[in-house]
């Protein structure tokens, strides 16, 4: 096994710590709204308006289809999303926000604003753009590596 550098050891720990801090703060902010941080991400992914298949949604939020399906069942019971048969693929379902889902998402967006303000407050807009680009590069690279296995 090759000798690792301090930086190689710190990056996974730093990524995990940042994610967990964001997740904990978001869970606390959304608790009174009856929605989890993960459900918020799913609602946000649907906010662009077009219906997505469950597979497209899982890909968009970097989750596995069974986890997405479980979240969709709960969100459908809450009448925040609606699932329908896909127009051309009888095996697939499409998912879209309901009017109630759009209203809930607006409330959640407001409830999470202070978290986003804190997050962006510790970096310049250029640093935020760089961070987003780098995180996307990491995701893309690791997803390519995974598909080669």
From TrEMBL:
Domain HTH marR-type: 8-140
SMART domains to which the protein is assigned, alphabetical: HTH_MARR
Top-rank taxon: Bacteria
Family annotation (SUPFAM superfamilies): Winged helix' DNA-binding domain
Gene Ontology BP term (one): response to stress
One Pfam family matching this protein: MarR
MF (Gene Ontology): DNA-binding transcription factor activity
PROSITE patterns, sorted: HTH_MARR_2
Protein name in UniProt: Putative HTH-type transcriptional regulator YusO
């Amino acid at each position: 096994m090759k000798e690792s550098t301090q930086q190689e050891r710190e990056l996974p720990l730093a990524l995990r710590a940042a994610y967990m801090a964001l997740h904990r703060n978001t869970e606390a902010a959304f608790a009174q709204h009856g929605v989890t941080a993960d459900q918020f991400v799913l609602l946000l992914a649907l906010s662009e308006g077009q219906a997505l298949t469950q597979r497209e949604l899982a890909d968009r939020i970097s989750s596995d289809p069974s986890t997405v399906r479980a979240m969709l069942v709960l969100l459908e019971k809450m009448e925040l999303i609606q699932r329908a048969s896909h127009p051309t693929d009888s095996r697939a379902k499409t998912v879209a926000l309901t009017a109630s889902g759009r209203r809930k998402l607006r409330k959640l967006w407001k409830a999470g604003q202070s978290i986003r303000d804190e997050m962006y407050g510790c970096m310049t807009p250029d640093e935020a753009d760089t961070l987003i680009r780098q995180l996307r590069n990491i995701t893309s690279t690791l997803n390519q590596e995974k598909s080669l296995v």
